[in-house]
Each structure stands twice: as structure tokens, then as C-alpha cells.
Specification:
Blueprint: E1 11-15, E2 18-22, E3 29-32, H1 33-39, H2 45-52, E4 56-57, E5 74-78, E6 88-92, E7 98-101, H3 103-112, H4 120-130, E8 148-155, E9 161-168, E10 174-178, E11 183-190, E12 196-198, H5 206-212, E13 220-221, E14 227-228, E15 232-235, E16 238-241, E17 250-251, E18 264-270, E19 273-282, E20 293-302, E21 306-315, E22 319-320, E23 324-325, E24 343-346, E25 350-354, E26 360-366, E27 378-379, H6 384-387, E28 391-395, E29 404-410, E30 416-422, E31 426-430, E32 454-458, E33 473-474, E34 480-490
Antiparallel strand pairs: 1-2, 2-3, 3-7, 4-5, 5-6, 6-7, 8-9, 9-10, 10-11, 11-12, 13-23, 14-17, 15-16, 18-19, 19-20, 20-21, 21-34, 22-33, 24-27, 24-29, 25-26, 25-28, 28-31, 29-30, 30-34, 31-32
Helix pairs in contact: 1-2, 3-4
The structure holds beta-D-glucopyranose (BGC).
Length: about 500
């Protein structure tokens, strides 16, 4: 069982034939309801203890979760101010699975609640956990640290462990990510009535992500997202040939791109935000690209309802890098049908013209007078037939590298909104034209054409073959750095 505070696996201690879970990292103990009963069986004390913990107080939760049912634990009062004994806030599982004490709390609870100080187990607990914990009394009780919940998701065919990480903020926004493909697995966000829904397309199981994710649902895409014409480019006098996997072109990093590799993962928790940082080293020659490239992608959820996706990369040889997140969004819910009724604004006055293979010709043209003009709000479905579905890169109205608001989406049915901010110079608007219902998604959903939209913030497609486009090449000593923020909200 994992510690509800620091997520380390807890050690099981046997006390008088009763098993108690103890966290070696933060020295807290977990007493589940059955254990309490056995420990205190001689006077109905366990019941009294659990009952005296019935009054939950609404405080800013620290998002500790019951290690058994994973429900958010309630803060409960113990002690009586009237009796001048002070009051304590303790974590209790709402389903009654047990109580969580840190060392200071345990010491205080033993002295506050009228425990029989001579009870053998009380003595044992006091001796084991309460000595030398005077200064440890209330740790960070007033803090508002968000935690990352980590669970085993499964194994790859090579036996590598894959994890599912869940971050949740105090407003009911939750994001799940996995170290398989550094994929964004889900985003739950409330509608205007506070009702949550998962607004990203995907799969329930790791097998789904590993075997059916041809569309790149939620994926971190790289080394270079989007198309590279004929899978070829020349850099520093040398021609490179990449894997060709989309007609004559290279798409989304090749046959085994960043979306299909296993990343190292590290959780970081702070006040008001929680992050998972993934790191991967792409070897020199992988999918045909030059240089050993170490990249990271960090997902951070904060209490401002922002999901921040930050990328970094370093190489030992000049190489193109253009990473993006390929989440398929449907703000009405992942299985709510088509996205034609969503209203969209894109702060983009220009777009990159495409040839018949969907690769830029090099010309940058005004959106004015075309179906790509979302400089004022339009329903996505309004002109979608005229353009045969959207699969286009727009040029964002800001300098590359500068963070700015680039898209605003509103779904009138649920009231959900999403704003996109990025440092990237371009964004691919893709309305999932190629989905045909054959992929069985979350809850068995059959995702059809136009059942989602992607706003893939990135450099322009095929930049490595277009000197006139902002450069995607990084060299040894340089750091690739980009950031995109998805901010969720509602309106009436
Ligand atoms: C591309 C589409 C492609 C889709 C899924 C998008 O980024 O622009 O053409 O079908 O990804 O691979």
C-alpha cells in the first residue's frame, strides 16, 4: 500500500499480531478500521475513536487519499476547545477505511483522546512513533500541497513497468498522464453546473494505448511533429533519411516516435501545483534523426485550472526538434458526438499553404476570406465542409518564443471553455477527419470523424526544409524550450 502523503510504499509492522502500515519516508502511520478494532478491542474504543471523528470540517484539502479506496480523505476535528485541550485535524477516509496520523498527530491524539495510557498497544504506539517527535507536531498542516497519485498501469511487452499518474486540483480539475508515450490520458473538468466529464479521447487501459493509438490520442509527439516532406532533410551539409510513414512523408517522429517509447518519470509536488516530469533519450540515428537528444516533458496542474505542458531538449549533434501534444479534445465529453457546435477563436491571421501531400508549399497566406479565419468566434462546424475538415497549420500572431494567448474554445451545451497559451509559433487545427469509428475508446466509445479537435501547438510543418520558417534546429550547448498552457473554465 502506498503512503497517502509521500506515495512511498509503506512498510507493514506487526504489533501484537496486528498489521500496521508505516511510512518509512514521512513516519506516518495508517490504521485501517479493522486494525483499529483489533487494537482497541477491550472497551469499544475503536468505535468510540472512529465515531468521535465523525465531524468533518471543510478545509482546503491537502488531497491526501485513502490508500485503500483512493477517495479524498476528510479532515476531521478531534479534541474539544471547551475543555481547553485544543483541536486537531486528522485525515479520515470518507468510506470509513481508516485514519491517517503523522507522528505529531499521533502523539497529540494519544494525549487528547482519553486513551488508556497504560493500554499495551497505546504504549507500543507511543514508544514506536512518538518519541523524539516533539518538534514534528503539525508538519505542514496548513499548507495546500497538491499530490500526485501513482498507480501501476501495466507492463509493456518487454516487461517494463508503466504507471498512471493522477493530479487533481481543489476545483475538481484532474489530469492523468502515463510514462508510456508521455501521454495525457485524461482531463476531467467541471461544466457550468459543476458536473465533471473527461474531455479527452483515449483508452481505458494501457493495452488500448499500446495497440490502438494510431490517431496519437493524448500523445507527446516527437522528435519532429507533423510532416517532413519525403522524410528527407539536409543539415550541416549532410543528407538524412527518416522513416517514411505517411504516404511519401515522415509524420510525427516516424514509426516508433516519442508517443510509443517508455519515459522515465518523476513526480514533483508543491503548494498549489503538482507535476509529473518525463524524460527520454532518443539515440543518435533513431528513426533516422542525428544526435543523441535528451528531452523532457513536464505536465503541471495548478489551482488556477491550468494544465501546463513544458518541453526541454539538449543534443550532442545538430538536429531538428519540434514536439507537441496531440490531445483530441471534446469539451462536451469525450463520447459526446461531434465538435461542430464548439465555438473557436484562433489568434492567427496567417496560415501555411499546403500542397497535395499536406506539406507546406512555403507560402504563408492570410486567413482572411478562408474557412481558417477564426480571428472572430465561429462554430467549428460552420465552414468545415467547405475545407473538407480542418488539418491546417496557422501562424500565430506573436513572436516565436513569446508566451501568448492563441486559442479560445467554448462549448455552449456544457459551458466549458478552454484557452490555449503557448510559446510556439504555429498551431495545427485538426478536426479528426481520419477517425472512422473503428477504434474502441474509453468506455467502449466509437470515435467517429469530427468527434474531437486538436490544437497542436508547434513549429510549422516541414520547417527543417524551409529556411524562411522559424528554425527547429538545435545544436550542442543550446536548449530547446517550449511551453503550452491549457486553461479550463466555464461560462454561462
Ligand atoms: C495531422 C493529421 C494526422 C493526425 C493523426 C495530425 O497532426 O495533421 O494529418 O492524420 O495528426 O496522425
Amino acid at each position: 500500500m502506498d503512503c497517502p502523503v509521500c506515495k512511498e510504499a509503506m512498510i507493514t509492522l506487526e504489533l501484537d499480531e496486528v498489521e500496521i502500515d508505516y511510512c518509512g519516508e514521512c513516519s506516518g502511520i495508517w490504521l485501517d478500521a479493522g486494525e483499529l478494532e483489533m487494537l482497541l478491542d477491550d472497551g469499544g474504543k475503536a468505535k468510540k475513536l472512529l465515531d468521535s471523528f465523525s465531524q468533518a470540517k471543510k478545509v482546503k484539502e491537502k488531497h491526501r487519499r485513502c490508500p485503500i479506496c483512493l477517495k479524498k480523505m476528510l479532515k476531521i476535528f478531534v479534541g474539544d476547545e471547551a475543555e481547553g485541550k485544543g483541536r486537531l485535524l486528522i485525515d479520515k477516509c470518507p468510506a470509513g477505511h481508516g485514519l491517517w496520523f503523522d507522528r505529531g498527530e499521533l502523539r497529540d491524539i494519544i494525549s487528547l483522546v482519553s486513551f488508556d495510557q497504560e493500554h499495551r498497544v497505546v504504549k507500543l504506539l507511543r514508544d514506536m512513533f512518538c518519541n523524539e517527535c516533539e518538534s514534528d507536531a503539525s508538519t505542514d498542516e496548513e499548507g495546500n500541497t497538491m499530490i500526485v497519485n501513482k498507480q501501476i498501469y501495466g507492463k509493456t511487452r518487454d516487461g517494463e513497468d508503466i504507471y498512471l499518474f493522477r493530479m487533481e486540483n481543489e476545483n475538481g480539475v484532474a489530469a492523468q498522464v502515463t510514462n508510456y508515450g508521455a501521454i495525457l490520458v485524461s482531463v476531467e473538468t467541471p461544466d457550468r453546473d459543476g458536473k465533471g466529464a473527461d474531455v479527452t479521447l483515449g483508452f481505458d487501459t494501457l493495452e488500448g494505448w499500446m495497440e490502438q493509438n494510431g490517431p496519437y490520442f493524448g500523445a507527446t509527439v516527437g522528435r519532429v511533429a507533423n510532416r517532413i516532406a519525403k522524410g528527407k532533410f539536409t543539415l550541416e551539409g549532410q543528407e538524412y533519411e527518416l522513416a517514411v510513414n505517411n504516404g511519401p512523408n515522415h509524420l510525427h517522429g516516424g514509426i516508433k516516435g516519442f508517443d510509443k517509447v517508455v519515459w522515465d518519470a518523476e513526480e514533483v509536488t508543491k503548494e498549489n501545483e503538482a507535476s509529473v516530469r518525463f524524460e527520454y533519450t532518443s539515440a543518435d540515428g533513431e528513426e533516422g534523426y542525428p544526435g543523441n537528444l535528451t528531452v523532457s516533458v513536464t505536465y503541471t496542474l495548478n489551482n488556477e485550472n491550468e494544465l501546463v505542458v513544458a518541453y526541454e531538449g539538449r543534443t550532442d549533434k545538430a538536429t531538428p526538434v519540434n514536439m507537441t501534444n496531440h490531445t483530441y479534445w471534446n469539451l462536451a465529453g469525450h463520447d459526446a458526438g461531434d465538435i461542430c457546435g464548439h465555438q473557436l477563436v484562433m489568434h492567427a491571421n496567417m496560415y501555411t499553404e499546403l500542397d497535395e501531400d499536406n506539406v507546406p508549399t512555403g507560402k504563408v497566406k492570410p486567413v482572411n476570406g478562408t474557412a481558417l479565419d477564426f480571428t472572430s468566434p465561429h462554430k467549428i462546424g460552420e465552414r468545415i465542409d467547405a475545407i473538407g475538415g480542418y488539418d491546417h497549420n496557422v501562424v500565430l500572431n506573436k513572436a516565436p518564443g513569446e508566451m501568448g494567448l492563441v486559442a479560445e474554445v467554448y462549448e455552449p451545451g456544457s459551458g466549458r471553455t478552454m484557452r490555449v497559451y503557448t510559446t510556439q509559433p504555429g498551431m495545427q487545427l485538426y478536426t479528426a477527419e481520419f477517425l472512422d469509428g473503428s477504434v474502441k475508446g474509453k468506455g467502449g466509445a466509437a470515435y467517429g470523424p469530427r468527434s474531437a479537435f486538436c490544437l497542436e501547438t508547434q513549429h510549422y510543418p516541414d520547417s527543417v526544409n524551409h529556411e524562411e520558417f522559424p528554425s527547429t534546429v538545435i545544436r550542442p550547448g543550446e536548449v530547446y524550450k517550449e511551453k503550452t498552457v491549457f486553461k479550463f473554465g466555464t461560462k454561462m
